[in-house]
Amino acid sequence: MKKRILTWLQATSDQLHIGNYFGSIKSMLDLSNEFEDAEIFLFTAIMHTYTWIHDWNVLKTNVMNSLKLFLACGADPNKFIIYNPADIAGHAQLTWVLTCLTIMWTMERMHSYKDALTKWKAWEIWVGTFCYPILMASDILLYDADLVPVWRDQKQHVEYARDIAQKFNNQYWETFKVPGVYIRDEVSVVPWTDGRKMSKSYNNYIWLLDDEKTVLKRVKQIPTSTQTVEESKNPDECNVYKILKLFLNDKENQEIRNRYETGWLSYKEVKDYLYEKIITFLKPIQEKYNQISDKEVLDLLEKNAKIVNEISNKKIEEIYKKIGFKL
């Protein structure tokens, strides 16, 4: 049986930025090449996003655009089984089963709930936010995933999925495969103008669909030191270089590092170089994005829903028999 990998695509915005690409999408694409013979299940996190976005039009637009951008970035629909969990009844069915087997204390110590408490009072937090990790566990366990690639700050969710799978297996015999955690930290944080990670929350990003004028404006805003042109500079202390190196091959990287260390490199010159690299990177993505229709995405989701539902239905039937739901 082929190794099965499960991952997901966020739907928290109607666009993806460069930080999303290098911090997440590129890792997914690399993963598909690293595990050529594996089945890679990728779902859009529409049900997770509903924990805080309740506008149907916003939710639909976010999901559609994120999927189109994922495909435009080079995702092969023959390698990724891309689906919408809202088309699969098993996600909600298993979530209820696991909810009934999870104690309050477990959810109270989860990062998602603790983060919410830093922003709101307990009585202002949706129950969906509190139970978010349970839905995530259902997404994973429903398909007997072997590996779940996550960044280190998401590891706790997979650990809960492992724990609840083992608890179920101990109580109702072997049912779920206990998933492995696959940590990918190579480019987990992409910095931008203020040294913080690129994020919509910080308003320090470049969207993958931004035009040339907007990109130029953003690049010009990157703060630099007061060192003169002729001075030698440490590239690792330069905000411009920290972003630029994401777009360079080894030879280009070494050349620009030498320029920094030798001196006579102006920040304007290196910003112009970064701007050219970003535009060259974005252009083919934007061209591909404009060629992908909504119908193409919907047809892909419909086709894969049949594949995924068949797997899900078998697992739910097995679970329902064991817990007594199937009379």
In short:
It is built from 14 helices and 5 strands.
Describe what this molecule looks like in 3D.
The chain has helices at residues 18-34, 46-49, 56-72, 89-99, 104-108, 111-119, 127-130, 132-141, 155-172, 212-220, 239-244, 250-262, 267-291, 294-323; strands spanning 4-9, 39-44, 80-83, 147-150, 180-183. The protein is mainly α and 327 residues long. It folds into two domains: 4-190 and 294-323, Rossmann fold (3-Layer(aba) Sandwich), CATH 3.40.50.620; 212-288, Tyrosyl-Transfer RNA Synthetase. Helix 9 links the parallel strand 4 and strand 5 (180-183). The strands form two sheets. Strands 1-2-3 form a three-stranded parallel sheet. Helix 4 (89-99) runs parallel beside helix 14 (294-323). Helices cover 54% and strands 7% of the residues.
